[in-house]
Every structure is written in structure tokens, then in C-alpha cells.
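Please check the following for our workbook:

***
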Amino acid sequence: LNIMENIAQFLKEAKEGIVTVEFQKIDSEEIRVMPCTLNNELSGNKVPGPMNQGIENDHFAVWCLDKNAWRSFRTNTVIRWYTGEPMAHPEK
């Protein structure tokens, strides 16, 4: 199952507000929990109007809220994504 199968929904949510993407970094294989947005207001006017990111993309550029910078991720490394700020992970 491709977690990013509903990319249209991901892009819609990211343009409206904050989404959190959990993915595996390619270089270190660590899991990254990244709050991000494609909302111009939330990014401090860093997101240009028409960003040509379509549902056929295999990676996406997003404004990363905890780094205050552009970051990208590959769709095939995504573990899950959800609307809103990162959820607290209970200690195992």
C-alpha cells in the first residue's frame, strides 16, 4: 500500500494548514517527523503562489516549520502523514 496514494488530499491539506510527514531519511535511515506546510501565511510568505507539484510527483518540496526552511522528501520513504502538528509519541 502506497501511503502517499492520496497525494491530492495531502497537497490540499498542506495548502490549507499544517501537515506532519513521517518518513525515513535516505542518508541515515532515521525516522524524521516533520511538521510542514504549503500555506503562504503560515510559512511567512515563503511559499510561491503556483507551485507545480502534482499528484504524479515522486518527491515533494514543503516549508518545514521546525527548521524554518525548505525541505523535500520522497514519497516512497513516507511512513505516514496526517493533518496538524506532530503527535506526541508515547515512550515505549
